[in-house]
Design a protein that fits this description.
Blueprint: H1 2-25, H2 28-42, H3 44-54, H4 66-73, E1 75-86, E2 93-109, E3 117-133, E4 139-148, E5 151-152, H5 155-166
């Protein structure tokens, strides 16, 4: 009897190990949506926080949300909430809301005014919102960053990325 239980437990651990191994070698464009689905199924608070930023307006683009912008410009964007610090009440704290988009093509002007453009193909664009939540539930964005292929962009290129991606929204 103990031998059969031991075999079942070992079998379950092997299956879990196989799934974990497959997950770790998946490219980000497939891993991100899986991570999003799992997080939103387990943590409803993270889903509501991510929804807040999905529906936020892109600066200088009236009527276009970050969700519309990322859906128009990328393959399988995914949203993820990372807890930086959280108080025991599970309400107040500091969070990072990240959206990842893959296989993005960007054509942006040079910051120094050159006539040619900066072009990225099959780029990975990550937008990170740094969020603070007060005890009354009020959410405040302390800052946000844009990364192209893991390189942080300055204010000019941050807006240029948003402008280029918003131009693809129909």
């Amino acid at each position: 009897m103990i031998n059969k239980i031991f075999r079942v437990v070992i079998g379950i651990l092997v299956v879990i190990g196989i799934f974990f191994g497959i997950y770790t070698i998946l490219p980000g464009q497939y891993k991100g949506p899986l991570r999003q689905v799992v997080q939103e199924a387990i943590d409803k608070d993270a889903k509501s926080l991510a929804d807040e930023y999905r529906n936020a307006q892109v600066p200088k683009h009236k009527g276009i949300t970050f969700e519309k912008m990322m859906l128009a410009g990328s393959a399988s964007p995914s949203w993820y909430v990372k807890t930086v610090t959280e108080q025991p009440d599970k309400v107040t704290g500091e969070y990072e809301v990240q959206v990842d988009g893959y296989k993005i093509t960007l054509e942006m002007p040079h910051e120094n005014g050159q006539s040619n453009s900066v072009v990225y193909t099959n780029a990975h664009v990550r937008i990170v919102f740094h969020v603070s939540r007060a005890a009354d539930g009020k959410i405040t964005t302390t800052s946000w960053q844009v990364f192209i292929d893991d390189d942080e962009q300055d204010e000019f290129y941050k807006q240029a990325v948003c402008d280029d991606l918003c131009s693809e929204v129909k």
